[in-house]
Amino acid sequence: MSTGTGTETGTGTGAGTSAGTSAGVATDTGADTRTGPGPGTGPGTGEHTGYRELLREAFVRRYEDGADSWSEEPAMRELVPLLGTELAPGSSVIDIGAGRGRDMELLLAQGHRVTAVDLVRLPDWEDIARRYGAAAAFEVGNFADLAVDRVFDAAVDNGVLHHQAPEDYAPYLANVRQRLRPGGLLAVSLFTTAEELAEGVLNRAEDGRLSRWFNEREATELLAGAGFTVTAVRTVRRELPGLAYLLVLARRDA
């Protein structure tokens, strides 16, 4: 069972937001710092006043430079089908860290209404808005500051949670829960490894961005503590050797 050493090659979705942070890709080379096992471990995780801005700037740069290779990663498109196993027709969905809107497009094509949230407004959104009209809504900014006075049937997090500072996991999930109706669905994709991890691993890239590799037990316990019941778990291997995504589907408790 390998937790990996050396370079960080994790990816997430777009420059998505969270309890103050974003999702995104970390494809940096060079050594990173890996710590485990607990979600509260890791050098400097308590010093995250500037971390949220660090993430925002990192993913703004990546989109501006066209360095968002994760947007087209095949494994990233496996989360919406998992959500679809339990999502009712014509549902309202909030896509947290929507990036270029790839998951949003899949959901809209299935007849759902989708609100995309991201730190960066991307040109792709204009095309989606033209094609889907009022079914597609867009919010630029931090998910924690989202001025939406309604709840949704489901939330998609395709790479946001695992980029949080560990002390932000609980506040982030509490915010997601608040945006969902009782019984609402949360589909979340988390970094993991192709071989089962005994314990989660916290990674720090050279530029300071955090990413966590979760195992199934840790993810399930984290969601349960936040008021969710896990209903399905899948591991999807990635093209990057030794890495995978842990896809988790959960329902908000009443």
Nearest-integer average pLDDT: 81
Q: Compute the number of helices.
A: 6
Q: Which structural class do you get from the secondary structure elements?
A: alpha/beta
Q: Could you spell the SSE succession in H and E letters? A: EHHEHEHEEHEEEHEE
Distance between the termini: 37 Å
**How would a crystallographer describe the biggest sheet?**
7 strands, mixed
Adjacency order of strands in the biggest sheet? 4-3-2-5-6-10-9
What is the CATH topology descriptor? Rossmann fold
The CATH architecture can be given as 3-Layer(aba) Sandwich
Query: What is the CATH C level class, in words?
Result: Alpha Beta
> What's the domain count?
1
Report the portion of residues in β strands. Answer: 25-35%
Number of strands: 10
Using the alpha-carbon principal axes, give the shape.
globular
CATH homologous superfamily - what is it?
A: Vaccinia Virus protein VP39
Show unreliable segments: 1-48
Keywords: Methyltransferase, Transferase
Region (Disordered): 1-50
Biased composition (Low complexity): 18-36
GO molecular function: methyltransferase activity
